[in-house]
Design goal:
The protein has helices at residues 17-22, 47-54, 70-79, 96-105, 152-163, 181-188, 197-200, 205-219, and strands at residues 4-7, 30-35, 61-66, 85-89, 109-114, 132-136, 170-174, 192-195. By secondary structure, it is of the alpha/beta class.
């Protein structure tokens, strides 16, 4: 699978989200961080803003829900906002298999995220129902954090399971991804890379997307 770059709007100007999306037309996905100030100690945007964003861009929306009760809220991001991929946190989901089935029924890919301190092993079987595994490479809640390399063994194990045929999914990493850290993440087996500051704080965001993709391609 070719590496995909998903610029994170968490690092963009929230007053100009449509302009931020337009600045990265070469992106594979557009990453949208939804935070509720309960599951994580930060409050960002919700469904109405994602619905409005959908009307301004043709890029596939990669919605990462850092919220309580995703069982209730996640399907709406597929049904009402047209999200391409909707990711919920394993730590917050009451019935992750049912969420995955609801998301797929609504026409979206289903993603499962795990925090840096959450082990992968308890979720290996239910990941058969998912299309994306998101391994957090920072603690969720805020952008601009440093990459946590200690989580890469989880990426390697997930890649091993994919290559053995046990799982069929994309492996996404989120947090601290830049021109230096994307190489280690790609070598470990990730194929979707969420990058915020490295893209939206660059002089040319779209060029930064292309450069990151090429680095990941060479490393993988």
């Amino acid at each position: 699978m070719q590496p995909r770059i998903a610029p994170s709007l968490l690092s963009a100007d929230f007053a100009r989200l449509a302009e931020a999306a337009a600045a990265v037309p070469d992106s594979d996905w557009l990453h949208v961080d939804v935070m509720d100030n309960h599951f994580v100690p930060n409050l960002t945007i919700g469904l109405p803003v994602v619905q409005a964003l959908r009307k301004t861009t043709d890029l596939p929306l990669d919605c990462h829900l850092m919220i309580d009760d995703p069982d209730r809220w996640a399907p709406s991001y597929a049904e009402q906002a047209g999200a391409h991929n909707v990711t919920v946190h394993a730590e917050a989901a009451a019935d992750p298999v049912m969420i995955a089935r609801d998301l797929r029924a609504a026409g979206a890919l289903a993603g499962l995220a795990i925090k840096p301190g959450t082990p992968l092993e308890p979720y290996l079987e239910l990941l058969r129902d998912y299309d994306t595994l998101l391994v957090m490479t920072v603690e969720p809640g805020f952008g601009g954090q440093e990459f946590i390399a200690d989580v890469l063994p989880k990426v390697r194990e997930a890649r091993r399971r994919v290559e053995s045929g046990h799982l069929r999914l994309a492996i996404e990493v989120d947090g601290g991804i830049n021109a230096d850290t994307i190489i280690a993440a790609a070598e470990a087996g990730a194929d979707v890379f969420v990058a915020g500051s490295a893209v939206f704080h660059a002089d040319d965001p779209d060029r930064a997307v292309g450069e990151l993709r090429e680095l990941a391609r060479k490393a993988s």
